[in-house]
């Protein structure tokens, strides 16, 4: 008899770090705590279909996995997923008994250069946790399902562990929150005043080429970086300042910390390798225009950056109209094909 297929489908968002994770050790453990916003519109939807094999495979390299992206088999990503699932062997030894088919698609517009590792890895991890629930292979209490998904997502891509929760999320032992851990992320939602809960993020696409430095190479370069220890100390200090700024609605400190974190990440990148100079003239043009607009209007707008040339512009819901007009009039000319993504803080992943 042929075993029948079961399935589970999850939609999981991307996230943008305000306090950056850059530098790791051991099994994808962060060298400093980070803080991020989970987005709403930039998501990956992944379906996992699985069925029991007649005969289990004997090695994790031989796992039976197919990964489809946008309706096409994607062998490059499939190899990554097989390596990832191999790494989960002690956690999920029973994966060797199953045939797994993933079908995945992103909502981000094509060729924007927006990294999808956080959304795709968190979606895979959520599907896997749901699969083990459906099969009764592990029965954690309900609140632990997300913690386990976060733990598993981390082993795929560090920042992915933060996408498992909505809103504001921390990852890494920080000495502030009792539940903080290097092994999984924790949501901050109750402690963030309303004003900050609905932040908006305009992602300005300066260049859609794939970045030259992979994030794993980038993290690796931190281990010999002369500023590494100072950086890890600074990140902890920034996290402290940021938590206070959020509590006290201290916009000035918020802006200072967010922009300093973005520029620190790029300073480290640029001084790590020739390929680390990722900012482009139009990234700088946007930064200057944002600072001038803030000076002129007094509005709470600031920028952050990922490991690439695109600029994330953060602003408050109440200023949406004014800021979006500014984007249209003054920033789109710096964007490739006038492209930008209108995003905001979201509620986190959900099952469909
Ligand atoms: O999760 P990774 O290994 O792709 O690293 C992501 C690092 C940054 O995006 C640059 C910062 C962060 O905290 O997300």
Automatic annotation (TrEMBL):
It comes from the Bacteria. Keywords: ATP-binding, Lipid biosynthesis, Lipid metabolism, Lyase, Nucleotide-binding. Signal peptide: none annotated. GO terms for biological process: isoprenoid biosynthetic process. Gene3D superfamilies: 3.30.230.10, GHMP kinase, C-terminal domain. The keyword Nucleotidyltransferase does not apply. PANTHER family: DIPHOSPHOMEVALONATE DECARBOXYLASE. This is Diphosphomevalonate decarboxylase. It comes from Prolixibacter bellariivorans.
